[in-house]
């Protein structure tokens, strides 16, 4: 058997001037050619562990390391990042600052030049790596013209150009839209399968990576809490309280008492099919068919709820003043594209709207116009009162040395940070900064409209739930809330209306179950598993239980499986 | 939009040539501006820069360079007659200000205008360089001389637009606050943000093996037709400019009375200054193999 690439025994690390250690007693082995996902909530030590693999910890950051850690046979205490780069390629979260050269070709050449490779080898390695990783068409591009996804792929190519046997990535998809994120994971999978590169990736959106993973290492408070195959990890995650690391489909099945917990949508379908068959009888796909029927009914055949909602909106539209109204709004860039094409939209007080669409669809521009940061080139914007806008980077709002100076005592408390008034905002986690920045833009007032642009990027589930709770509170207080997001789970859990933009026009506008339940891309994992019958795990689990009861299935918690009878009707959709 | 042009790959002879040749041509144009004060020659050089920019597809960028240089040129044109009372032809007697006679003379005014024109030529020549010569390739040439300095310059080139975007974002964020913070607080935060960026870049360089200190000798690249044409044009313009300056072509003596040589030699010389830099863009050959593949 090949030597492990990474061997850690009792490894621990404390950052300089930190009150406590970030890593404790890490013991693990990573074999060549494996795909490992590193899971954990913010601050659990994932990034620190990856930085230890690349030698940045302790050589770049300083601090104190204990125990043993070797990567590719090199002890990280004796070998710095430069030497470890030969065996460990590293990709960070932010694509902007890890691409250091102005051109893509120069970026790929740089690591080889640092290694003193002959010019011929450099040229060949750049060509081959670019072709293998699908960035050949970018070689002559300037790096400042690349999208986030392209930059991240270039960063991976630069990390892999000298063919290290190990690639570590720290939340590489957190700054990307879902399409670019999925493409990146496919690329990693290809690297792992075709090149035999061992991949270790830290990621919050586990459902994206688990289908490719051989193994999941879960970190809790700087320690390894679980080190298992994806299926076992999901069992472990589902048993935690709260189940912060469980994927939506795993939570759905866990709540419904179905096993095994699925690491992918395909496995979810298989489990549903199996749940409807018993030994001695032919397996049927009634589980999937049932869900498909329910989903279709919800989308097309039983539009009672959407119709009621639309009627309510129309009535409200006549009777009340809109919190925000956009009338035939166009935004055309000088010497550039048309971003918005005659958008008309009306937000009622207390409404929670998720604004979705691919990158470049016009979401951010629409929010900026709604706030008044940009002017429409045609059309009109009506605001019932103050409009609060939280832009994508919360750090931009936190300009003082102490949280209380930015948000005030009440704001700090509203952000859930009471007692940490004197904390430097830069020391807060991403989720905490986001909530604090939201209080900064609210300014203690009661704005008529609250707009948030991609607030959940790089955020773990616990912080997302906390943000969603605060946003709901604002809506209950009468503010119309609109959140531009790629995060379908967040949108489904928060919004009572989804507006989908495409090419600068509204291509769908309706309740979440109608828009997200019927989508191929704009759809939750639970919706894909249940064919659109449910969007969220809790809702889907109720449906599975009700469906099971209606079909004569025993209590799924007992672990029994029953036959679905063909003459039985699909379960009713919960109102 | 930045007044300093940013390089973008375009299908032109100037972009297709190696950076050294492109830089040499831009340098020769700037040298011409530095060597001469003659308005006809300076106008020819400016015309060559603008036309080369248009032919290279960066006319808009050259226009921005002109807008950038114009205030400096106007400043020089205005200040020179105010502070330099030499010259025989008095245009305006302004009396005494702070114990100093303000006499505006034709000679000082003309000298100010010529010097302003010179500034415009030099700035737009560098604008052409910035817009049409690959900075990575250019800085790579210097990496052979001073690796760390050239890499630092490369990083600066890369990070300036990133930091500019950061600053724009922070400014937008400040506009979104009900109580905008003071400028000092924003400036401090921007500085802290740029330091964070610098730390991230340093970490990225470390994991790309910067500390190994290896250096690769560049593989010789065959000279293309565009490399040759630009290099020859640059060399010719340099020789013509230096030789002309040595023999006194285009002599301008502002003081005590304005003397501007305007013979046939100046006209021919100006025509050369205008046309030589444009030769690499002439003919069908200038359009061969200029587009990027893919």
Main pleated-sheet profile of chain B: 2 strands, antiparallel
Gross CATH architecture of the domain at 317-528 in chain A? 3-Layer(aba) Sandwich
Amount of helix of chain B:
55-70%
State the total count of DSSP E strands of chain A: 19
Q: What share of the residues of chain B does DSSP label as strand, in percent?
A: 5-15%
Describe the global form of chain B: flat
Overall CATH class of the domain at 317-528 in chain A? Alpha Beta
Major beta sheet summary of chain A: 6 strands, mixed
Strand order in space, largest sheet of chain B = 1-2
Rg of chain B (C-alpha, Å): 24 Å
- Mean pLDDT of chain B comes to 89
Question: Any idea what the radius of gyration of chain A is?
Answer: 25 Å
Nearest-integer average pLDDT of chain A: 85
Measured as a percent range, the helix fraction of chain A is 25-40%
Work out the strand percent of chain A.
15-25%
Order of helices and strands of chain B: HHHHEEHHHHHEEH
Provide a count of the helices of chain A: 22
- Number of individual domains of chain B: 2
Largest interface: A-B, 75 and 56 residues
Oligomer: heterodimer
Polypeptide structure, described:
- The complex is a heterodimer of chains A (575) and B (294).
- With 575 residues, chain A is an alpha/beta fold.
- Among the domains of chain A are: 6-99 and 164-246, 3-Layer(aba) Sandwich (Rossmann fold); 317-528, Rossmann fold (3-Layer(aba) Sandwich).
- Chain A is built from 22 helices and 19 strands.
- Chain A has a six-stranded mixed β-sheet, sandwiched between helices. Chain A has a six-stranded mixed β-sheet with strand order 15-16-17-13-18-19, with helices on both faces.
- In chain A, a hairpin with a 2-residue loop joins strand 9 and strand 10.
- In chain A, helix 17 (430-442) packs parallel to helix 18 (461-476).
- Chain B is mainly alpha-helical.
- Chain B has helices spanning 13-16, 19-35, 39-55, 59-83, 106-132, 135-143, 147-176, 183-207, 225-247, 264-275; strands spanning 90-97, 100-105, 252-253, 259-260.
- The two termini of chain B are 29 Å apart.
């Amino acid at each position: 058997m090949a030597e492990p690439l990474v061997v850690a025994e009792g490894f621990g690390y404390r950052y300089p001037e930190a009150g406590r250690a970030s890593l404790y007693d890490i013991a693990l082995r990573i074999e060549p050619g494996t795909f490992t996902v590193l899971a954990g909530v913010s601050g659990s030590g994932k990034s620190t562990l990856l930085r230890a693999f690349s030698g940045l910890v302790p050589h770049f950051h300083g601090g104190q390391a204990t125990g043993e850690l070797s990567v590719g046979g090199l002890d990280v205490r004796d070998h710095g990042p430069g030497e470890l780069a030969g065996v460990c390629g590293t990709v960070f979260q932010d694509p902007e600052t890890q691409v250091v050269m102005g051109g893509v070709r120069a970026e790929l050449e740089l690591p080889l030049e640092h290694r003193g490779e002959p010019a011929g080898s450099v040229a060949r390695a750049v060509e081959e790596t670019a072709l293998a990783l699908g960035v050949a068409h970018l070689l002559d591009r300037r790096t400042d013209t690349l999208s986030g996804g392209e930059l991240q792929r270039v960063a991976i190519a630069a990390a892999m150009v000298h063919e290290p046997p190990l690639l570590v990535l720290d939340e590489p998809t957190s700054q990307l839209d879902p399409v670019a994120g999925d493409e990146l994971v496919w690329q990693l999978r290809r690297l792992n399968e075709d090149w035999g590169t061992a991949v270790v990736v830290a990621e919050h959106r586990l459902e994206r990576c688990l289908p490719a993973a051989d193994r999941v290492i879960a970190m809790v408070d700087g320690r390894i809490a679980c080190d298992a195959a994806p299926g076992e990890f999901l069992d472990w995650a589902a048993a935690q309280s709260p189940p912060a690391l469980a994927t939506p489909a795993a939570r759905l099945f866990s709540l419904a008492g179905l096993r095994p917990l699925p690491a992918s949508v395909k496995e979810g379908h298989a489990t549903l099919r199996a749940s409807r068959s018993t030994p001695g009888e032919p397996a049927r796909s009634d589980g999937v068919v049932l869900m498909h029927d329910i989903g279709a009914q919800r989308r097309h055949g039983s539009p009672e709820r959407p119709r009621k909602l639309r009627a309510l909106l129309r009535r409200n539209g006549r009777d009340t003043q809109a919190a925000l109204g956009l009338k035939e709004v166009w935004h055309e860039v000088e010497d550039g594209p048309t971003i918005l094409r005659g958008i008309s939209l009306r937000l009622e007080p207390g409404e929670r709207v998720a604004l979705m669409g691919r990158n470049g669809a016009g979401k951010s521009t629409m929010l900026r116009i709604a706030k008044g940061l940009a002017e429409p080139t045609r059309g009109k914007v009506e605001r019932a009162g103050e409009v609060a806008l939280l832009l994508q980077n919360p750090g931009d709002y936190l300009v003082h040395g102490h949280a209380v100076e930015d948000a005030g005592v009440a704001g700090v408390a509203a952000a859930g940070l009471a007692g940490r008034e004197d904390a430097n905002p830069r020391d807060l986690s991403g989720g905490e900064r986001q909530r604090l920045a939201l209080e900064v833009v609210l300014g203690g007032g009661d704005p008529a409209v609250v707009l948030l642009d991609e607030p959940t990027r790089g955020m773990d589930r616990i912080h997302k739930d906390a943000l969603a709770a605060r946003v709901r509170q604002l809506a209950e207080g009468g503010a119309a809330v609109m959140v531009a997001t790629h995060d379908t789970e967040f949108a489904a859990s928060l919004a009572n209306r989804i507006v989908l933009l495409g090419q600068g026009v509204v291509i769908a506008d309706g309740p979440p179950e109608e828009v997200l339940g019927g989508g191929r891309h704009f759809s939750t994992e639970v919706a894909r598993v249940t064919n659109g019958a449910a969007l969220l795990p809790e809702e889907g689990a109720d449906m599975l239980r009700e469906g099971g009861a209606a079909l004569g299935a025993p209590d799924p918690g007992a672990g029994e499986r029953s036959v679905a009878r063909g003459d039985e009707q699909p379960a009713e959709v919960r109102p | 939009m930045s007044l300093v042009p940013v390089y973008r790959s375009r299908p032109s002879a100037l972009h297709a040539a190696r950076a050294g040749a492109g830089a040499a041509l831009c340098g020769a144009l700037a040298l011409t501006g530095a060597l001469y004060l003659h308005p006809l020659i300076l106008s020819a050089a400016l015309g060559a820069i603008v036309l080369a920019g248009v032919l290279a597809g960066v006319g808009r960028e050259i226009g921005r360079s002109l807008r950038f240089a114009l205030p400096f040129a106007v400043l020089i044109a205005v200040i020179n007659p105010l502070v330099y009372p030499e010259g025989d032809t008095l245009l305006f007697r302004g009396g005494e200000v702070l114990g100093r006679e303000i006499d505006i003379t034709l000679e000082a005014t003309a000298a100010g205008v010529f010097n302003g024109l010179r500034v415009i030529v030099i700035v737009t020549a560098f604008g052409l360089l910035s817009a049409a010569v690959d900075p990575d390739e250019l800085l790579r040439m210097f990496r052979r001389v001073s690796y760390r300095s050239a890499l630092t310059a490369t990083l600066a080139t890369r990070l300036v637009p990133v930091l500019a975007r950061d600053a724009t974002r922070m400014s937008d964020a400040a506009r979104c606050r009900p109580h905008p913070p003071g400028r000092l607080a924003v400036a401090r935060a921007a500085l802290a943000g740029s330091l964070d960026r610098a730390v991230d870049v340093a970490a990225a360089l470390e994991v790309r093996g910067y500390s190994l200190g290896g250096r690769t000798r560049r593989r010789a690249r065959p000279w293309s037709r565009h490399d040759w044409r630009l290099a020859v044009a640059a060399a010719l313009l340099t020789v013509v400019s230096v030789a002309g300056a040595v023999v006194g072509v285009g002599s301008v003596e502002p003081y005590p009375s304005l003397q501007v040589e305007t013979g046939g030699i100046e006209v021919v010389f100006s025509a050369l200054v205008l046309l030589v830099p444009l030769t690499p863009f002439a003919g069908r050959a200038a359009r061969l193999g200029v587009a990027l593949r893919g």
